[in-house]
Fold this protein.
Amino acid sequence: MTKVWLVVERDLRTFLRYKFLLIMRAIWFVAQVTFFGLISSRMVIVPNYYNYYVAGVVMMLLYSTAMFIGYDIFEEAEHGVVEYLLSLPISRKEMVLGRSIGGGIRSFVYVGPLLGVALAMIGIANPLNFLVAFASLFLFSFGVSGMSIAIAVGIKSHDKYDILLGVLDALIIRLSTTLYPRAFMPNLYSAIAGVNPLTFASDLFRWGAGLESIYLTNPLTAIIGLFLFFFTFTFLGVAIYEKRLEGGGWE
């Protein structure tokens, strides 16, 4: 496990080099909660919609940050870093597992302070509920990281990945409860949102913060959904990435 955590540490340091990106996303978060959130809360009749909106914005940021691991993989492949990593005294399985864990943890390292700001605005009604929700969000983050890795090494094209990621972002975010409850969606959209992992993460975070509402997904359902998402995509990402690395490269 020591070697796995060395890979995790490397990914954290690599991610923190993207200072401009991190600053821009922080500015996006501030704009969302101080401008768009206030405007939307005056237009929507859902009780405490502003807090509902803020919680969704945090989960959107957690999702997009965890997905960024795919770009790192492409950059390493293009610059020959993958071959260097394979020459180190670390097994492929250890390296792949470390990449998946690192992609999830670094999203929390970045989103953590912003999540604290959100909680200061929303409050925590039940600390125990929040701890359960917070622990479950790690499953979501690791699952998203695994999904990003699986997609990146599956298509092996930076341009295609960039386009596909834009499409996925539009679908996964819009067809979820990050910005609006399922009760106000058309039936088809509501059905899709009901099995969307971003819906599970957003509603579970709201529940943990004390925003109990008839509009939220049942907490037990959300936890089970996040566990299945984590299990599927974390191990799928590890399996596909490890297979691509057989023979000394990812091609």
Observations:
- Residues 24 and 89 are 37 Å apart (CA to CA).
- The chain has a mean pLDDT of 83.
- The chain has one domain: 2-245.
